[in-house]
Write a structure and sequence with these properties.
alpha/beta, Rossmann fold, seven-stranded mixed beta sheet, about 30% helix, globular
Length: about 180
């Protein structure tokens, strides 16, 4: 895993491989996504929520590029421990709130709104298709904000009422939604 932009550009991290339940976004797809974000948002102004955070890959990218209010959520203890360790190594603990929680429970309990929400669920997650509805039902995206959902070609959100566009990077698709 590599940070591709900002003050930590080029830093590499190796999550433990033994029974690691993540599928990190490829550098190619991540670079494409962050180019889109860079053209639409000011990183220093963003309040970010990273759901199914895994290795923390997206959280680090946002903080590296100037975001100071990032929330990370994952239910796997190994991932949470890795992110806490990496945050300490990068000295970014004050910018990163880390929650060990089921994403759907977190979404139902938080009272916060975010400028940008990234959801990178496991592709075989049985209720992956419900994620946009759950996020918007709980009013988590600010008026001009985005929800970006990473998924594979087995899912199609073009008919969703909040869908605005998608970017396709091979088998990685980012569907973008806004209120």
């Amino acid at each position: 895993m590599r940070i591709i932009g900002g003050k930590f550009k080029g830093r590499r991290f190796n999550p433990p491989a033994n029974k690691w339940p993540t599928r990190p976004t490829t550098d190619f797809a991540k670079e494409g996504l962050f180019n889109i974000i860079n053209n639409n948002f000011d990183f220093e102004e963003l309040k970010v929520l990273d759901l199914f955070g895994g290795t923390g890959n997206h959280s680090y990218e946002f903080i590296s590029r100037g975001a100071t209010d990032v929330t990370y959520v994952d239910k796997f203890g190994g991932c949470v421990a890795f992110v806490k360790k990496t945050a300490a190594l990068l000295e970014i603990e004050k910018y990163l709130k880390i929650y060990k929680s089921d994403v759907f429970k977190f979404v139902k309990s938080t009272k916060q709104q975010y400028d940008y929400i990234f959801a990178g669920p496991p592709y075989p997650l049985p209720n992956l298709d419900t994620i946009p509805d759950v996020i918007f039902e709980h009013d988590l995206v600010k008026e001009d904000g985005w929800l970006v959902l990473e998924h594979n070609p087995n899912h199609d959100f073009k008919d969703h009422p909040k869908y605005i566009k998608e970017r396709n990077y091979g088998t990685t698709i980012f569907s973008i939604f806004t209120p």
